[in-house]
Amino acid sequence: MSQLNGAYYGPSIPPPQKTYHRPGRGGGCFDCCCGCIFSLIFKLVLTVIIIVGIVVFLVWLIVRPNVVKVHVTDATLTQFNYTGNTLNYDMVLNITVRNPNKRLGIYYDRIEARAMFQGARFHSEFPGPFYQGHKTTNLLNPVFKGQQVLSLNDDQTSEFNKEKSTGVYEIDVKLYLRVRFKLGVFKTKTLKPKVTCDLHIPLNSGNGASPPATFETTKCDWDR
C-alpha cells in the first residue's frame, strides 16, 4: 500500500461560516412618529408665541400707553402738634389725577390716601371710586383731621422739633390704588399701583404772627 501525502488530497477546505442575524429593534416607526409629533407641537407653540408677541407689539404701537400723572396742587396745614406721643393734625389736599392716554380709560375701583410722618401712618382717607375717560383730569380732595398716637423715637422727635422751628413739615402721602384699564370693550385685570407724594407743607396756624410760606405744586411718583 503506497504512502499518501498531503498533496493527494488537494487544498484544505475551510470550515463553513455561521451566519448571524441581528434581531431588529421593535418600535422604529413609533419612535419616528413621536419625534414628529413633538417637533410639530414645538413649532406650533413657537408660532403662537411669535404671533402673540407681534399682536402685543402692534397694540402697544397703536395705544402707546402713558403713565398717569398725579400732582398735589395745593395743601393746607392748620394744625400739626406732637405732644405726649399724640399727634394732632388738620390737613387738606388738592390732588389732580391726569389720564394722558388717547385710547385708554381707567377704572379706579379703590383708592386709599395714606398720610405718613417719619414713616409712621397717622391717617387714611378713602375717596370714592370713579371712571376716568381719555385725556381727562379728576380732582381728589382728601381731608386728614384728628389725632393719632405715634411712638416716635429720639431721632424722629428731634426731626419734628427741627421742622417745627422752620414751620414747614415733611409729610408723605401715598395713594394705594386698585385700577383697571379699558381699551374699547376690553378691560385688563385689576392692577395695584402705588403713588408716592413727598410733600413740604408750611403750617398756617391763622394767628397772623407771620405770613405762611407758599406751598409749591408737587409731582408724585407713579410706581407700577
Automatic annotation (TrEMBL):
GO CC aspect terms: plasma membrane; plasmodesma
Grouped into one coarse class, the protein's main location is: membrane
The reply on keyword Chaperone is no
* Cellular compartment(s): Membrane
Keywords (alphabetical) are: Membrane, Transmembrane, Transmembrane helix
What are the residue boundaries of the Late embryogenesis abundant protein LEA-2 subgroup domain, all occurrences included?
Answer: 95-197
One Gene Ontology term of the biological-process aspect is: defense response to other organism
Natural source organism: Clitoria ternatea (Butterfly pea)
Pfam annotation, one family = LEA_2
Q: Which InterPro entries match?
A: LEA_2, NDR1-like
User: What is this protein's record name?
Assistant: Late embryogenesis abundant protein LEA-2 subgroup domain-containing protein
Specify the protein's topology with respect to the membrane.
Answer: Single-pass membrane protein
Q: Where are the transmembrane segments?
A: 44-63
Q: Which domain of life is it from?
A: Eukaryota
Repeat: present as a keyword of the record? no
Annotated signal sequence is none
